[in-house]
């Protein structure tokens, strides 16, 4: 097996300011970067047309591409009908920013898809994702749901219920291993028609946990990136680990991606650890071992 996929880095994982992080990503050997674009200087509301053009030119000057933006608005995803109008509007603006910066992908969490397909929450999420998907499709772009909160089979059923593939998948194998215990290898084959971006991450599940306690749901504590990182660092339910030290079977995972013809980015995300840059550097070498 010889991988041909470009390697990306979630630049925020380097814990540097944006431009320094972009330079360091290039020095580490990345082909592209994913950038968090919800708040701060990357909030679409804070970026003028000139600033967007300047950032895109700067990324180009480094010989990098933007693999995706991260537009995850946390909280209860799109489960709360009362909050959805504002969240949908902001998500659209993040996608506009993505297109201006030269990528067609915004990754996000939509909240846990309920098992009951006739439930009000399921229908609320369907309506929100239908609107987002139609908007993305009109721009030849994608909102990419991150795997992990539910099984791949259940997520596929939800995606199949939408009228377009404008809402697709950002495949994260470690989330599946750590939370639902689902098999990422089989998940690749199940979601093959929807995978437009991937994360390369590893981890281990320590005990069975209700995904609603991790990712939040109506009636549960809302999801926050800080709480996810705390659990991934030293929690009782799961741990995120450097590549090759967890339970993701990368030989089989990469082969599955190859089997389905996926040629997009393998983007390294490292949300925890005392020296994420060193872990990311090792992860790049780990992936290059398959090239």
Automatic annotation (TrEMBL):
Database matches in SUPFAM superfamilies: Xylose isomerase-like
Keywords: Isomerase
A GO molecular function held by the record: isomerase activity
Isomerase listed as a keyword: yes
Keyword Nucleus: no
Occurrences of domain Xylose isomerase-like TIM barrel (ranges): 22-288
Pfam family name, one: AP_endonuc_2
PANTHER family to which the protein is assigned, alphabetical: HYDROXYPYRUVATE ISOMERASE (PTHR12110), INOSOSE DEHYDRATASE (PTHR12110:SF41)
Protein name: Sugar phosphate isomerase/epimerase family protein
Provenance organism: Paenibacillus gansuensis
């Amino acid at each position: 097996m010889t991988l041909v996929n470009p390697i990306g880095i979630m630049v925020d994982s380097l814990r540097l300011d944006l431009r320094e992080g972009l330079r360091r990503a290039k020095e580490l050997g990345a082909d592209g970067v994913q950038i968090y674009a919800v708040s701060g200087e990357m909030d679409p509301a804070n970026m003028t047309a000139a600033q967007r053009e300047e950032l895109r030119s700067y990324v180009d000057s480094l010989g990098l591409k933007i693999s995706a933006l991260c537009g995850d608005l946390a909280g209860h995803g799109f489960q709360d009908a009362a909050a959805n109008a504002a969240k949908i509007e902001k998500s659209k603006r993040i996608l506009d920013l993505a297109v201006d910066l030269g990528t067609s992908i915004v990754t996000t969490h939509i909240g846990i898809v309920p098992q009951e397909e006739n439930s009000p929450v399921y229908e609320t999420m369907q309506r929100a994702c239908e609107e987002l998907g139609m908007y993305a499709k009109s721009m030849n772009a994608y909102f990419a749901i991150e795997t992990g909160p539910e099984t791949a089979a259940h997520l596929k059923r939800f995606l199949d219920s939408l009228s377009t593939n404008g809402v697709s998948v950002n495949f994260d194998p470690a989330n599946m291993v750590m939370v639902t215990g689902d098999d990422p290898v089989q998940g690749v084959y199940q979601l093959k028609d929807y995978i437009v971006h991937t994360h390369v991450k590893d981890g281990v599940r320590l005990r069975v946990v209700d995904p609603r306690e991790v990712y939040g749901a109506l009636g549960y504590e809302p999801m926050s990136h800080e709480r996810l990182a705390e659990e991934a660092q030293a929690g009782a339910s799961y741990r995120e680990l450097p590549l090759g030290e967890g339970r993701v079977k990368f030989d089989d995972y990469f082969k599955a991606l190859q089997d389905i013809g996926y040629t997009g980015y393998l983007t390294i995300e490292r949300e925890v650890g005392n020296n994420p840059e060193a872990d990311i550097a090792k992860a790049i070498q780990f992936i290059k071992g398959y090239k």
